[in-house]
Write a structure and sequence with these properties.
By secondary structure, the protein is an alpha+beta fold. The chain folds into 2 domains: 97 residues, 2-Layer Sandwich (Alpha-Beta Plaits), CATH 3.30.70.120; 199 residues. It contains 13 helices and 4 strands. It has a 4-stranded antiparallel beta sheet.
Length: 312
């Protein structure tokens, strides 16, 4: 279940209470008249079944609560309440299949911002990938995959496109368009310093039989893996099964391809650099297309295909 808190003008509080009382998925409703200080008004709280959250939030947004006050949602790990159990049983659908769309937009929006933290993680991931390529270490490559933060903007781009949130789509696209070139440039600088210091030479990537050659080898499986990973990642983000995201991070070669491109460029292997960049592009496009398709199917299944999400 989720804990819902609505801060609203006192004049709107009766309608908020009525909305919660009438919905079978809400339980343990609490009203604090005059408790809100800024903005002044009432506070209404309730435990809400996950599969009922979207309908209730839409109803509260129709009362303009998201503009005149606030609507907040928090995940509840444990609820000991017969009324809460009854609300979960009465709410239509299954909790694990329910999508809290406003929460999804908020989550992907936060993870899609181009900021110092995002750039730092992406750069460190690319540097780790470069080390894995130079030392022919698949384990280090996997570590780089896990560290990479790129799935956040990719998911944000898919959500922005499907939910008609141009602000989110532009923010995510900017993070990807600026983040990867910056990370590749820093990685190339690091590779140049390492090469100048004699830590490695062209033999690190030349020839055949390297365990990490899969990073730059482009083929049908590149797109297949990207599509499957994008679908799994979006299913994970839109359900309660977030643990699957780790597997998504490990399955795609976005960050390793960026790291390989930087190393190959420094060593003058333009063919492998081009293949690595193609691998990067195929993975990015495949993930976004698959994630967007999953979202379209889930919105169509919920009858929300024509409803743009409100802006926070």
């Amino acid at each position: 279940m989720l804990h819902l808190r609505a801060v609203c003008p006192s004049a709107v509080a009766p309608e908020v209470l009525s909305t919660l009382r009438e919905h079978p998925g809400a339980a343990n409703i609490v009203h604090f008249p005059g408790a809100a200080v800024h903005p002044a008004g009432d506070v209404v709280e309730a435990n809400v079944a996950r599969e009922a959250v979207d309908e209730i939030v839409v109803a509260l947004a129709a009362l303009d609560v998201d503009h005149t006050g606030a609507i907040t949602l928090e995940q509840i790990d444990t609820v000991l309440s017969d009324l809460a159990d009854e609300a979960e049983e009465l709410a239509p659908g299954e909790a694990s299949d329910a999508v809290v769309w406003e929460d999804l937009v908020g989550k992907t929006g936060e993870e899609s911002r181009l900021n110092a933290t995002f750039l730092a993680f992406l750069t460190i991931a690319c540097l780790l990938a470069a080390v894995g390529i130079i030392t022919d270490s698949p384990v280090t490559i996997v570590g780089a995959m896990v560290v990479g933060p790129e799935f956040g903007p990719l998911a944000g781009l898919a959500v922005g496109l499907v939910c008609r949130r141009s602000d989110l789509a532009k923010r995510a696209a900017l993070a990807l368009a600026a983040g990867f070139p910056a990370a590749i440039a820093v990685t190339a600088l690091g590779a140049w310093l390492g090469n100048a210091a004699g830590l490695f030479d062209a033999s690190a990537i030349s020839g055949e039989g390297h365990q990490v050659d899969f990073v730059y080898e482009v083929g049908p499986w590149s797109l297949i893996v990207a599509v499957l990973a994008g679908a799994a990642g979006m299913l994970s983000m839109t359900s309660a099964k977030s643990a699957a995201l780790v597997g998504v991070f490990i399955s795609v070669t976005t960050v390793p391809a960026a790291g390989y491109a930087a190393v190959a460029a420094i060593l003058g292997d333009w063919g492998r650099m081009g293949q690595s960049l193609a691998q990067l592009a195929i993975n990015l496009i495949g993930i976004v297309l698959a994630a967007a398709t999953v979202l379209l199917l889930r919105r169509r299944g919920a009858g929300l295909i024509d409803r743009p999400l409100p802006r926070g």
